[in-house]
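Slide 14.
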Amino acid sequence: MEQFQVDGVDVRVEGHGTETLLMLHGWPDTLALWDAQVEALRDRFRCARFTWPGFDGASRRTQPTLQDTLALVLKVVDRLCPGGQVTLVLHDWGCIFGYQFAMRHPDRVARIVGVDIGDTRGLARTLSPWQKSGVLAYQVALALAWKIGGGVGDAITRRVARWARAPADPATLGWQMNWPYHLAWFGGKDALPRHTLPFDPQCPMLFVHGKRKPFPFHTEAWAQAIARRPGSRVEAFDTGHWVMVRGRERFNQVLRQWLLAGGGH
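Slide 15: predicted structure.
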């Protein structure tokens, strides 16, 4: 195993191969989310991952902008593959940030694996009033938990995680990891929606999503468009949001098969 630091962030690299996978997690997880995938792929791929700033549960308050976050990803990619490309393996906020990185640096991304978050353009029009209120409620609650901090912020964070059936250990969860929600809703001039580009991947993509959720995070039209692209694939699982955990064996099989088959290479 290789380890190095980028801007104070520990990056872990395991496995061997000519292709480097950069695995980016989301809320409320850490790099440990990908343990089973690294174990399944490390014999053929170089698997790199890190925990986002603020997500380790012991951090001070941090509020990176989208620009800050993408700059961190670029520095990691530069260390991993100087002048070369990585394959992005993404979930949740990892998808949001990874997709934006791919749109800004398409020459550095060979392929994309997106888990349960797709392009959200037009998504609101497909949601029921109840679903819209549910999205608003949990996201604003987490944003406010970040603002409040302390024990109250922790309690709100753990309650939302329990409602979402997040597999992360509640003891590891803290208000500090909610900064992406605060950035999205209350970021002012840096608010996330002001700076995101429509996600239209220019490389092959594997998109995997769970069907058993209160609301979707992609439109069916977008998923169908991805499925029609050469080298790309869309798979629906009978799971919730954390497909790589709840559907681990099949997910690992689909992921490994697509990567080894070339997925557009």
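Speaker note: Strands lie at 2-6, 9-14, 20-24, 46-50, 86-91, 109-115, 205-210, 233-237.
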